[in-house]
Amino acid sequence: MTELLPLNPDELLTTTRSVRKRLDLERPVPLEVIRECLEVALQAPTGSNAQSWHWIVVTDPGLKKAIAGYYAQSFDAYRRSASYSGARRFDDPARDATQTRVASSADHLAAHMAEVPVLVIGAIFVGLQLPAGNQAGLWGSLLPAAWSFQLAARARGLGSAWTTLHLEYEKEIAELLGIPARVRQGVLLPVAYTKGTDFKPAPRQSLDAVLHLNSWSPVSA
Question: Domain Nitroreductase, which positions (predicted)?
Fold first, then answer.
């Protein structure tokens, strides 16, 4: 088993960041390490214990280049939208500076996606079609496992970034990889060793700004 970083649970949870610019694009990632991370991911909760998730690990340069091409097309549209991280502004200079850094790192990842050693797509068996209305029950059986994968990767000196922009071309990527129509993709995780492991907690809003107790009224009111 791969040697783990000396992180206690709280350190692991609060320092697992979306890593983009600090992904080491030159260092190979052994498939066995990815398998270790996925074994951890399979311990995540899943509705009715269905375990209907699937994991597509892509290392072939041609396939990565094709996926990166679709991602770049989607990212270009995102970059010109109001949702782009660099377009979001707040009444807080420090938070605005953070948004600028996030946008720069997102730009970097989009430009270098094909060079990332491993791409991992988390998917789940759906059936004939996605359920109507709130789909939390469905995705709640996949996304916690994907986060567990990211935590396991961090513990082994690897970094990743949660991305979903590829879903604009989900059908094309499914055809490229031979993913059945009844299996839907939920997340794309570019994975590589990181340049250094000294990640820190990110600045966040205060808990009281988003905490509600017994009603929607904020606790700080």
Answer: 15-191
In angstroms, the CA 134 to CA 148 distance is 23
Q: Which pLDDT band, with edges at 50, 70 and 90, does 42 fall under?
A: very high
| CB neighbour class for 183 (10 Å; exposed up to 12, middle 13-18, buried from 19) | middle
Comparing C-alpha atoms, which of 78, 73, 154, 167 is closest to residue 124? Answer: 167
What's residue 220's pLDDT? 61
Domain hosting residue 59, numbered range: 9-209
Three-class DSSP category at 218: strand
Rounded average pLDDT over 56-68: 98
Indicate the number of domains in the chain: 1
